[in-house]
Fold this sequence. Notes:
Order of helices and strands: EEHEHEHEHHE
Structural class: alpha/beta
Helix content: 25-40%
Number of domains: 2
Number of strands: 6
CATH topology of the largest domain: D-Maltodextrin-Binding Protein, domain 2
Strand content: 5-15%
Number of helices: 5
Distance between the termini: 29 Å
Amino acid sequence: MSYLKLHSWILATTLALPGAAFAQQTLTLYTSQPNTDAQMTVDAFTQANPDIKVDWVRDGTTQLMTRLRAELSAGVTKPDLLLIADSVTMESLKREDLLQAYLSPERSHYDAELYDAEGYYYGTKMITTGMAYHTRAAQQPRRWQDLVNEQYRNQVAMPSPLYSGAALIHLAALTDHPDLGWDYYAALNQNGASARVAMVAC
């Protein structure tokens, strides 16, 4: 590929898109962090690097990837850095040779499972998922399988994996589970579960 590689930023992952260069005094960050968290990240970076301005765009991981793919197809370079919610997407970008490896000197402080061994991306946080229900609810689910039972018909809402990287990782975990799989998602759909963008932060 002719793309310049996206740079890896410690505590973030960066892209290697056409024209991306750290020599520039302005970096463009695409992030799925909530706005407040994204601004805190940028503020911390600019405090340590006052000569570098950071412009940032915030959206769900899937939406950012759709935007990025469209920009690549058009031959337009936008982001220098990516800070998104799932390693599945990063692995895909790595396979396509769109990321630049960076072996950060800080990596020795992290568990080796939290970053790519070749330095193509680094984990920034642990994203956990779970079930939430009102404490006075008549029915209180204890297992994922409970959510496909009749008493929860049309009562289940979940973040959309079409928007959120965190939800995509959750989907991958459940569909890989031998007791759940894709049949579980089909059962959720048949039981009236809804996927909502408004619930999603990452």
